[in-house]
């Protein structure tokens, strides 16, 4: 519970004494304290809130869009989330990076001498707070994937973990064990990190969040924008990661979680590296951002080409046990992260890639192609071709997400206008600070 935010909102609705009483009751309930002790805590919270928010300052304040993260689907790997990422790229501006946020890749790239340096960071799945080991395992594997698909060899991993005030310290160790299980298996070291409480004293409860980053080095890169007309699309078998594990946990199908604990993706991409095929590959991706629907849409957008997928062949690239679970729960496998490796290259190279990956013991199939003349992502099913697009949110994969839904809100365009305004205000503020700082 964010007691600072709670107090701030309540002070707008009721008197200070009433806020203190209600806040103390909430604190006592969550922390299992006496009301007297909780009352002292509540008094201090109110003092800080009044001091912090009773005044304004252009540097401390920020433009309020009136659009919440949940309403706009931020983090839900759909249209709203993708739109916010486009706005983030606008706020960043021209960074001079070889690959930046505007390219819609999961890793950014800079050049240093003759080498490309790829950097990626992934947040832990928000619903794995009480399962720190697999949260660490899957986020580490995800960060490495983002670097690998840029054609880079990971050389270092770093982490950040935040646990709320009442969280057990042991979560730190279980989480780090999950991270280093991947690191040790792949022989890429965890070199640094940060450990903090969420919101310091102001957030009570046991929630955990954080992220893992990865740095890689290469002489070639394989960004999404490099796909070409006539390329074929290859896909390895995917069993999912944090998203599929979350689905299994919250639908009570815990045996499926073990299907996600593998390094098949890394085995496949390392086989490609070992065969010296990276320089011949145009683009690689991991199927995570809202599934095939999301990734294909982004690749089509940055390349200006169309990606065509064979529905049945894509379906066959989902781990059978995972696919059975998804279909039993009526979750669209094309709209959820299955963590497959997607390779886009010419037909001749595709044969070499398939041979190398199969030799590593990983299933891989040709599932589609790239063509010009139209734009977007399409699927062929039953002899008919139809366009596929990401929904407002990725496929609803927990009971609560099914209640929240995947449909676009009726006021989406108005919310988007407000988000545009917020991004513009952030850019203006940055410019004002840069003018103040001068050149270094």
Structural features, described:
The protein is of the alpha+beta class. It folds into four domains: 3-53, no CATH class; 57-93 and 410-440, no CATH class; 106-221, 60s Ribosomal Protein L30, Chain: A, CATH 3.30.1330.10; 223-395, Phosphoribosyl-aminoimidazole Synthetase, Chain A, domain 2 (Alpha-Beta Complex). The chain is built from 15 helices and twelve strands. The strands form two sheets. A seven-stranded mixed sheet has the order 7-9-6-10-8-11-12. A five-stranded mixed sheet has the order 1-2-5-3-4. Strand 1 (108-112) and strand 2 (115-123) form a beta hairpin. Helix 2 (16-31) crosses helix 3 (35-53). The longest helix is centred in the C-terminal third of the chain and has 26 residues, at 412-437. It is globular, with a radius of gyration of 23 Å. The model has no long low-confidence stretch (mean pLDDT 95). This is Hydrogenase expression/formation protein (HypE). One of its GO terms (molecular function) is thiamine-phosphate kinase activity. Residues 228-380 form the PurM-like C-terminal domain. InterPro entries: Ni_metllenz_mat (IPR009186), PurM-like_C_dom (IPR010918), PurM-like_C_sf (IPR036676), PurM-like_N (IPR016188), PurM-like_N_sf (IPR036921), ThiL-like (IPR006283). Residues 105-216 form the PurM-like N-terminal domain.
């Amino acid at each position: 519970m964010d007691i600072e935010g709670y107090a701030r909102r309540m002070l707008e609705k009721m008197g200070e004494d009433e806020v203190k009483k209600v806040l103390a009751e909430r604190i006592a309930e969550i922390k299992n304290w006496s009301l007297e002790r909780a009352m002292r805590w509540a008094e201090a919270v109110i003092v800080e809130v009044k001091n912090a928010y009773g005044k304004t300052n252009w540097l401390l304040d920020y433009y309020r869009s009136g659009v919440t993260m949940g309403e706009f689907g931020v983090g839900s790997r759909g249209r709203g989330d993708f739109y916010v990422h486009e706005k983030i790229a606008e706020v960043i501006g021209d960074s001079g990076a070889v690959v930046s946020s505007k390219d819609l890749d999961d890793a950014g790239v800079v050049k240093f001498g003759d080498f490309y340096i790829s950097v990626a960071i992934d947040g832990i799945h928000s619903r794995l707070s009480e399962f720190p080991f697999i949260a660490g395992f899957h986020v580490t594997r995800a960060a490495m994937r983002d670097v690998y698909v840029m054609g880079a060899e990971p050389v270092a991993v770093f982490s950040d973990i935040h646990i709320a005030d009442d969280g057990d310290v042991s979560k730190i160790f279980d989480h780090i064990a999950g991270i280093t299980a991947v690191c040790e298996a792949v022989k890429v070291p965890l070199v640094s990190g940060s450990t903090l409480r969420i919101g310091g004293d102001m957030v009570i409860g046991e929630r955990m969040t954080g992220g893992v980053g990865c740095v890689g080095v290469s002489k070639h890169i394989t960004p999404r924008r490099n796909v070409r007309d006539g390329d074929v699309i290859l896909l390895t078998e995917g069993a999912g990661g944090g998203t599929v594990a979350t689905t299994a946990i919250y639908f009570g199908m815990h045996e499926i979680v073990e299907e996600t604990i593998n390094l098949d993706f890394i085995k496949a991409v390392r086989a490609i590296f070992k065969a010296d095929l990276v320089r011949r590959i145009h683009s690689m991706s991991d199927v995570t951002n809202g599934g095939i629907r999301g990734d294909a849409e982004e690749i089509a957008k940055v390349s200006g080409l169309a990606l065509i997928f064979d529905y049945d062949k894509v379906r066959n690239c989902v781990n059978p046990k995972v696919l059975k679970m998804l279909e039993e729960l009526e979750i669209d496998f094309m709209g959820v992260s299955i963590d497959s490796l997607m390779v886009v290259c010419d037909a001749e190279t595709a044969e070499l890639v398939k041979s190398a990956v199969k030799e590593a013991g990983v299933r891989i199939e040709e599932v589609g192609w790239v063509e010009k003349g139209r734009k977007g992502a399409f699927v062929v099913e039953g002899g008919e071709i139809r366009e596929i697009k990401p929904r407002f949110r990725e496929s609803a994969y927990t009971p609560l997400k099914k209640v929240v839904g995947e449909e676009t809100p009726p006021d989406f365009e108005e919310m988007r206008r407000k988000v545009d305004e917020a991004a513009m205000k952030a850019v203006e503020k940055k410019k004002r600070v840069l003018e103040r700082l001068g050149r270094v």
